[in-house]
Specification:
It is a single chain. The chain is of the alpha/beta class. The protein has 12 helices and 12 strands. A 7-stranded mixed beta sheet has the order 1-2-3-6-7-8-9, with helices on both faces. The chain has a 3-stranded antiparallel beta sheet with strand order 10-11-12. Helix 2 (27-46) runs antiparallel to helix 11. The model is unreliable at 265-269 and 403-411 (pLDDT under 50).
Length: 411
């Protein structure tokens, strides 16, 4: 695979707002976007979604094993190590909403992503030390209810007080809420991420650094808020070198609208989240949008920020009933691999394995070779679940790797 990513990373990360790269879609940018999307899919693939499991809402794999277990180690040149898993608390939601899901080991918390950093080997391929923050999309009933909290709330406490930015109530709270009694959220997901970013920026301050945020759906909106937060509050600068600034880029998929446009009757009144974002340097956002996906058109009366890459997976000959899978992340990545621009058709330019489309859905056309099974990732995960015996002779239901403290579900 020939690639110029190492020498072009600044342009691919939006230094020139992706001018001239989106239509037709630049081949290095295709690979770049897919790479970041796969790091979001990793969280979805490793999430314990079965409500019967004691570890429901958490991760199947330890940090050190995540990328190898989800298939991002073999044959993948982009090498990262995870610095920290991220958890978000829904304790701000009404009790009748929280009651719609079982209270298992995570309580009101859920695993929502991670902070990672390139290894020395990965740095050679990507051209710099990349600090990566990944936010997954909505999973489960409670998060679906969080998505529906459409009211705008002020974000001036963490962003720009001058412009009085207003953002989506549910996602802002999920990002900023802490729960002192919680094992996973004594601090908010925001504080967890910012602390990890601060440590990594200070650790690698003498190298060339980038900070890349990626996410899907709800995670795309939270990721955009997170990227803005990092720049507004200077977390892309070493603590002892405030004049040294590293670029921050968000590459997000199926992003709903996040904040307000602003507007005030007073001539010099506050101008909202859109203006807050637009005034920032060293921050770029690329939103990948499937043309007929409804989620990026929501919520009403909110605004998008950044640049947009439009794909249309209904043009793919490989998909069965493409209108039913418009929002799936693996379908998005398939679309990036084959889009021929707004006015073009569909032709795979990146040799992305078609089997990935069928990981958790029945999405491939019947014309595709029959050896590609449907929902094969789900089946693979379920086969690894079951009763296992511990060293003390007791039996547990194993729905994830046994942690170092042996905290698994004893029945």
């Amino acid at each position: 695979m020939s690639s110029n990513i190492a020498t072009r990373w600044r342009v691919l990360s939006g230094e020139n707002k992706w001018e001239g790269l989106l239509d037709p879609l630049d081949i290095d940018l295709r690979r770049y976007i897919i790479h970041y999307g796969e790091r979001v899919q990793a969280v979805l693939d490793a999430f314990v979604s079965d409500t019967r499991c004691w570890n429901f809402g958490l991760h199947r794999y330890a940090e050190r094993n995540l990328f190898s277990e989800v298939g991002l180690a073999k044959g993948n040149p982009y090498k990262y190590v995870i610095k920290k898993y991220i958890y978000a608390s829904a304790a701000f939601m009404p009790e009748n909403s929280l009651a719609k899901e079982p209270k298992n080991s995570a309580g009101n918390s859920k695993w929502i992503g991670f902070v990672a950093v390139t290894t020395d080997e990965g740095m050679e391929v990507l051209g710099r030390r990349d600090i990566l923050i990944s936010w997954r999309g909505t999973l489960g009933t409670v998060e679906a209810l969080i998505d529906l909290k459409f009211g705008k709330v002020p974000a001036s406490e963490i962003l720009d007080k001058e412009n009085d930015p207003q953002v989506h109530e549910g996602w802002y709270n999920y990002y900023t809420w802490s729960e002192p009694s919680s094992k996973y959220n004594p601090t908010s997901s925001r504080d967890q991420v910012l602390a990890a970013v601060r440590e990594l920026v200070d650790q690698y301050k003498d190298e060339e650094i980038s900070i890349t945020v990626t996410g899907h759906s709800m995670g795309a909106a939270i990721g955009t808020l997170n990227a803005t937060d990092i720049v507004v509050n200077g977390y892309n600068k070493p603590k002892d070198q405030p004049n040294k600034t590293f670029p921050v880029t968000a590459i997000v998929f199926a992003s709903p609208r996040l904040g307000d446009e602003g507007g005030n009757a007073e001539p010099n009144g506050p101008e909202g989240f859109l203006n807050c974002f637009s005034n920032l340097k060293n921050l770029n956002v690329l939103r990948v949008t499937n043309d007929q996906d409804k989620v990026p058109k929501l919520p009403p009366n909110y605004e998008h920020v950044g640049q947009e890459l439009v794909i249309d997976t209904t043009k793919s000959e490989y998909l069965k009933d493409p209108e039913k899978t418009l929002h799936e992340l693996e379908v998005y990545l398939h679309g990036v691999a084959g889009t021929q621009g707004v006015a073009g058709g569909f032709k795979l330019e990146v040799a992305r394995d078609l089997t990935l489309v069928n990981k958790t859905i029945d999405g491939l056309s019947d014309e595709v070779p029959s050896h590609i099974f449907v929902k094969w990732w789900t089946e693979k995960v379920e086969k690894k679940m079951g009763m296992a015996q511990l060293d003390d002779g007791s039996w547990v239901f194993l729905d994830g790797e046994i942690a170092e403290d042996n905290e698994v579900a004893k029945l």
